[in-house]
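To assess whether ligand presence alters the predicted conformation, the chain was also submitted together with zinc ion. Input:
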Amino acid sequence: MPSIVPINSHDPHSHSTGVIKFTNCLLVKGNNLVKEDLWISSLSGKILNGQEILYGARTAPDSIIDLDGRILAPGLIDVQLNGAYGFDFSVIPEDGTVSYGKGVRRVNRNLIRTGVTSYLPTLTSQRPEVYQQALPFLGPPSSVRDPTYGSESLGAHCEGPFINPNKNGIHNVSVLRTAPNGLTDLATCYGATYLQTPSPIKLLTLAPELPGALSCVESLTSLGITVSIGHSDASYEEAKLGIKSGATMITHLFNAMKPLHHRNPGIFGLLGTTSSSIRTKPYFGIIADGIHLHPTSIKIAWNAHPEGLILVTDAMRLAGMPDGTYDWTNGSRIIKKGALLTLEENGKIAGSSIKLIECVTNFLNWTGASVPEALKAVTETPAKMLGLQDVKGTLKEGADADLVVLNMQDTGVGQDKKLVVDQVWKFGEKVFERE
Ligand SMILES: [Zn+2]
């Protein structure tokens, strides 16, 4: 077990500096694991400049944490989470928004125990009144940095309703819309107040081939909202126009879009395009749950554009719940068995309930990626996609001290390894320790 040694506790002249030093650990730095100490402040909740402290000799740490050779990584970021622990971000409870707010807080408190220190609560396509009731609860907290709140929303991911009815997946076709009048139509749907800077919406998935969509991409980008292409029937050329208009992401690559065809590579083709012809190659979400995608498809996408790959769970409200049979919509029921969710009546796949760290483990074992390369897909890369690369997903000085301590274990199956979350830190304070 790690030991926390209070250094100044017997010195009556000392005052608490809030400085914590992690030692005997492997830091995730770029594509390497580096044996180095990390210094953080529990007062500011940020990562400190270790060199400055060491050579300036100004500050002695309040405590030294010996991690016994384990991995210390930035906290994980999930940019597509529909719900968990029995709560669905897309459903306003019958007793109203107060109970919606309680549900969000319950997800936050539990989610952080899985190593996910920040995320984008994700709404599937809904009627306007749902967005307008839910969005006030889903924006990033303005100035509150309280570790006890748990995982932190970086803003909502609105997946739809401006998506293609032919690629709706589990989204309800009757609520899908188009935006021929651009921003005006978006405002009617999400609420004009939520399309002002700063918006509680951080990421918006739309289909670029729909009427008015390209003008929406430009407007949203200028508002600081990142646009992702998804649930789309776009040809390669149409997808390219989406990127040229400002979209920088693809929502769950391969799922809910045309498959790769040798004469029309579709949205996937963007990964093979030279950056100069489309501004920049897009980031892309990958659901590595062993159900949505074949491991080889994941490897091909990673080989095509390793810097763009972001692992997402796309998990829904049964994530974190015990196995069993649960009521679903329209009288259907869902059977949960481990990460697998199927409809009781026909055995069809009904979404994911995987944890993000399990996606990282799958990715490691399926692609032969190194541990830092796999962790990048849930830390540095999503942070960059959201424009938060100096604040989240990094161990650089000045970033938030959102951290996970990971233990690498053998699974007993061949050479397969497994990453286990041992500790979670939020804003410089330990908020979870595995028993
Ligand atoms: Zn989707």
